[in-house]
Each structure stands twice: as structure tokens, then as C-alpha cells.
Design goal:
mainly beta, 7-stranded antiparallel beta sheet, 7-stranded mixed beta sheet
Length: 264
């Protein structure tokens, strides 16, 4: 199973590298928040599932809220495999006197594994993609790209801890298990390493978010879905003071930007 998971994670990155020319895309449009604009918010189904999976967002303050209704991977019977995923993209531009310092992802869900005990029946989730800094202090730069993937989350983890790598299996996790994943991308630190001031004002986000389910025996079934107590949501938010701790947002996938006053 470890080899299968690694291969799928690489496949997710390959989708990002190849682009969207062969895949259908839904463009949800532009959304203006209090201190940031989300441009060309779009999603592309990466495994051919009916779109949309994330769904059209709404904006509240500096947040985009998505409420997916069918972001699920499910299978049953001997040799069953199901993959569900979508590539979410947007360009985030900060308003005057605001910079984008940190990007956080948080996702929540549950998994249900039934049938006879089997390590060959299970589920896992993956996050793969990049943040590309396009402007610093309002001026274009040679893009600085910060990549991430499920096998090497930067300051990130899944709970249970194996969900993003070897997954949950029917032998160890029978019945229904709650899971969550979180990831933090320090944009300011990446800019310093690249020789720039830590004052990102325009960044591009490409997030490939996938779920996988697989079964070994005829009596097995496996299901994993993104799910939250108050409804599946994705939150993108600007926090307008420096040094603010990462927000823990109730929702499906949380992408949080910490902002501070822009220095001249």
C-alpha cells in the first residue's frame, strides 16, 4: 500500500505539471474581500468526477467559503478502487498596506471501513500543489515557487497521523473514523530565503486535493469524505496583525493568510 500511495501522490503533482488542457474547468469568477481579492477562482476535476466538487464559493470579510456536497471516494468488493479529486486555483492580491505572510490549510472529514479485517482495504487523502509569489510590495518579481505534497507537508500533519501517507485500513480502523489534515506555508520565510523582503502582495495558489478508497475482499467497503460539523467549507482569510497564530477554522479545507502592514 505504501507504494500505491506514493504513486498517487506523484500523480497528483503530475496533474499540476501537465496543466488543464485535457480537463474541464469551472471558473467561479472573482471575489473581493475586505483586504484581499481572489481572482479567477476555478476548479478542475482531476479524475473525471462530475463537477463541481468544491462548488461556487461565497465571500465573507476576507474569506472564501465553499460548501462541497459530493467530495467523496467510495468503493466496495474485491479489488475496488475509487479516486476523487479537484484542482483549486486562484490568484490572491492584497490591498494597500497589507501583505500575505502565511498560508494555512485545514481539512476535516470521516472514513468508514466495513467488512472482514484487511490491511488491503482502506482510504487516504492527499494535498499537493504550490504557492507562487508574483509580487512583493506591489512590484512584480521573478516568481518564487513554494511546493508541497501529501508525502512531505511543510509544518503539516494528518490526524490520525497515517492518513496522508499509508492511510487508514480496515484492520486497524474498523467502522467510522474522524480525520483532519493541516498544512502551513510560511510565505514570508520563503521570500527571505530567496533574497526578497517578506512582503508578498500577490500570490498564485494551485491546490490538488484528492481522496482515495480501495477494497480487497468481496465483503469489504470503504468510504472517505470531506465533512464538517457545521457543513463542509473552505476558508481563506486575511488576519490583519503580525504575529497572529494560525487560525483553527471549522470547515472542510481552511486556507488562512496572516497579513501585516506593508513596509515601504
Amino acid at each position: 500500500m505504501r507504494k500505491f500511495c506514493a504513486a498517487v501522490a506523484l500523480g497528483s503533482l503530475a496533474v499540476l505539471a501537465l496543466g488543464q488542457s485535457a480537463l474541464a474547468t469551472i471558473n467561479h469568477g472573482n471575489y473581493v474581500g475586505t483586504n484581499v481579492t481572489f481572482g479567477n477562482v476555478s476548479e478542475t476535476s482531476t479524475f473525471g468526477d462530475p463537477e463541481p466538487l468544491f462548488g461556487a464559493p461565497t465571500v465573507s470579510g476576507n474569506s472564501l467559503l465553499f460548501s462541497p456536497t459530493n467530495f467523496t471516494a467510495t468503493t466496495l468488493g474485491a479489488g475496488g478502487v475509487d479516486q476523487t479529486g479537484a484542482l483549486l486555483q486562484t490568484v490572491i492580491t492584497a490591498t494597500a498596506l497589507t501583505t500575505i505572510d502565511t498560508l494555512n490549510f485545514t481539512e476535516f472529514g470521516d472514513a468508514t471501513l466495513l467488512g472482514v479485517a484487511s490491511t488491503g482495504t482502506g482510504v487516504f487523502a492527499s494535498l499537493a500543489g504550490f504557492v507562487r509569489v508574483l509580487e512583493v510590495n506591489g512590484l512584480p518579481i521573478t516568481p518564487v515557487t513554494i511546493g508541497f505534497n501529501a508525502g512531505g507537508l511543510q509544518n503539516g500533519s494528518f490526524t490520525p497521523g497515517t492518513l496522508g501517507t499509508t492511510g487508514l485500513d480496515r484492520n486497524t480502523n474498523p467502522g467510522t473514523t474522524l480525520w483532519s489534515g493541516q498544512l502551513s506555508i510560511d510565505i514570508a520565510a520563503a521570500l527571505i530565503l530567496a533574497g526578497h523582503a517578506p512582503l508578498a502582495t500577490k500570490v498564485e495558489l494551485a491546490l490538488d486535493n484528492d481522496l482515495y478508497a480501495y477494497t480487497e475482499f468481496a465483503s469489504n467497503s470503504a468510504k472517505i469524505q470531506k465533512k464538517a460539523v457545521t457543513g463542509p467549507t473552505i476558508i481563506i482569510e486575511i488576519v490583519p496583525e503580525p504575529g497572529t497564530a494560525a487560525l483553527l477554522c471549522v470547515g472542510l479545507v481552511a486556507m488562512t493568510f496572516r497579513a501585516r502592514g506593508r513596509r515601504s
